[in-house]
Amino acid sequence: MFDSRLKAYGLSAVVFAVDRLTKAFIEAYVSPFDVHAVIPGFFDIVHSQNRGVAFGLMNESNSAWRTAVLIVFSAAALVLVAGMLWRASRLDRWTSAGLALVLGGAAGNLFDRILWGRVTDFLEFYIGDLHWPTFNVADSCIVIGSGLLLLELLRPKRQTAGA
Fold first, then answer.
1. Smallest Cα–Cα separation from 19: which of 125, 124, 111?
2. Is 112 a catalytic residue?
3. Is residue 31 assigned to a domain?
């Protein structure tokens, strides 16, 4: 049981650390006006700040409550996912990994919101004029973790004999 928890929380800690390191690097070495083309016409490294939620929703809101509300909801989700991971020994490995990725990513973004009231995004994908909203490592892990959870829900389950 302890081993399952250690693996799950350890994966979350690695996600959090990689997210913080990449954001710190971008904040230190990439100005908000820089665009570093990694794959011209498809992928750039940029430096943007998101005060809203996913895909920049609420980014333009001037509400004094915006940051506080986002912190409260993020913290509640973090507690819920951490609680689910506490029972990691009862979860299959894909569910455990998915929850761990979500936990680490959510913790990374919550950390930023609490300290600065915003999240640093830097990965920008596009084709021509079609741009995917800029995101970061934490966002990527949340999406990948959610995808693992969805796949696990959709996966056919074996029926036990006599059930």
1. 111
2. no
3. yes
